[in-house]
Design goal:
There is one protein chain. The chain is an alpha+beta fold and about 325 residues long. The chain has one domain (about 5-325). The protein contains nine helices and 14 strands. It has helices at about 5, 15-25, 35-45, 50, 60-65, 235-245, 255-260, 280-285, 290-295, and strands spanning about 70-75, 80, 100-110, 115-120, 125, 140-145, 155-160, 165-170, 190-200, 205-210, 210-215, 220-225, 300, 310. The radius of gyration is 21 Å and the shape is globular. The two termini are about 20 Å apart.
């Protein structure tokens, strides 16, 4: 996936015009308002190339905004509205919770020289397996790991008339007893992201990670973050893909580092190795694997199913001090 195309989502003129024209007809927020929701399917059909989710993942939320709908509402468990459009400008129907996974995090500004961090609201506890770890011994008995929302079949619904899906989180992020004591702060920048997979009109499997950055107003409704200084792009997957062809992890469904950073933050640790899985630390050590091995410090992680991932033979194909190769400015 060429992320440069992902950023070419400014072609929302038609959707905006349709939404504006319908505003006088009672266009507003919610699945029951037919005039506003018609704008989703109309805009998709009128501009297939510009709204195709495979090429422009952010349009999953952009079309929702263009129709005058609210992409995210947080009054208890978050409620997310999104759409999926195929290459012919048709709404992709029939998706279930097997096609999606959702994550939600807030952006906490860095202090004392440390960078900003995405802090996830949802965590699980990993229990180390006996005999699995350095020299056959787990480093820790258990560890906290940021994760995606737990799913049931009823959490995803489709609005046929409107042409969009609604997903209701199982986690109430306003309740710190459900979030590993991460406190909901509505005025901070938040991010909702989807691990989305489906089949396109020509039978091609599509795997993308649409995301939406926002704050939350007094009514619990999302307000899109448009000021680049109030969000954070930790790295650009386009840079990753100059070497990796297409970065695809965790079974191939996680293809954008803007999704990865939501779980790979300082709050996530591999119990078996004891290694912190913060993305910046993990990526630096993976790409320094060969040098670390030469210095007697192998970097190994035990992943899904206690699978061992040893990076002792990995080397970066240029000077490791070329930070600009991977790191991105705020955007």
């Amino acid at each position: 996936m060429d992320l440069s195309r992902l950023h070419s989502i400014g072609r929302m003129g038609l959707a905006a015009l349709v939404a504006a024209g319908l505003a006088g007809c009672g266009g507003g927020d919610g699945g029951g308002n037919a005039p506003a929701t018609t704008a989703v399917t109309t805009a998709a059909a009128a501009n297939p190339a510009g709204t195709n989710t495979a090429d422009n993942p952010k349009q999953a939320f952009g079309l929702i905004q263009g129709a005058g709908l609210t992409p995210v509402t947080v009054n208890s468990p978050p409620v997310v509205n999104f759409t999926v459009v195929n290459q012919n400008g048709q709404i992709v129907k029939g998706l279930t919770t097997s096609n999606v996974s959702f994550a939600i995090a807030k952006l906490v500004p860095g202090a004392d020289g440390n960078p900003d961090q995405w802090v996830n609201y949802i965590y699980r506890t990993e229990t180390a397996a006996a005999g699995v770890g350095p020299n056959g011994t787990p480093a820790q008995a258990s560890a906290k790991q940021a994760t995606t929302d737990a799913k049931t079949a009823t959490q995803l619904t489709f609005n046929e008339a409107g042409g969009y899906y609604t997903y209701t989180f199982s986690t109430d992020i306003k309740d710190p007893t459900k979030t590993n004591n991460v406190v909901f702060e509505p005025t901070r920048t938040h991010r909702v992201a989807i691990q989305l997979s489906y089949i396109d009109a020509d039978g091609t499997p599509v795997k993308v990670n649409p995301y939406f950055d926002f704050t939350v107003d007094g009514n619990g409704k999302s307000v899109a973050v448009t000021d680049a200084s109030k969000t954070r792009v930790m790295a650009d997957v386009t840079s990753c893909n100059t070497c990796h062809n297409q970065l695809a992890l965790h079974g191939g469904g996680r293809v954008d580092v803007q999704y990865c950073v939501m779980c790979h933050n300082p709050g996530t640790v591999d119990a078996n190795s004891g290694n912190n899985l913060d993305l910046k630390q993990m990526v630096h050590k993976i790409h320094s694997g060969r040098r670390l091995h030469a210095e007697g410090h192998d970097y190994t992680i035990w992943g899904y199913g206690n699978s061992e991932h040893d990076y002792a033979e990995v080397g970066f194909p240029q000077d490791l001090r070329n930070c600009t190769k991977c790191c991105s400015r705020r955007s």
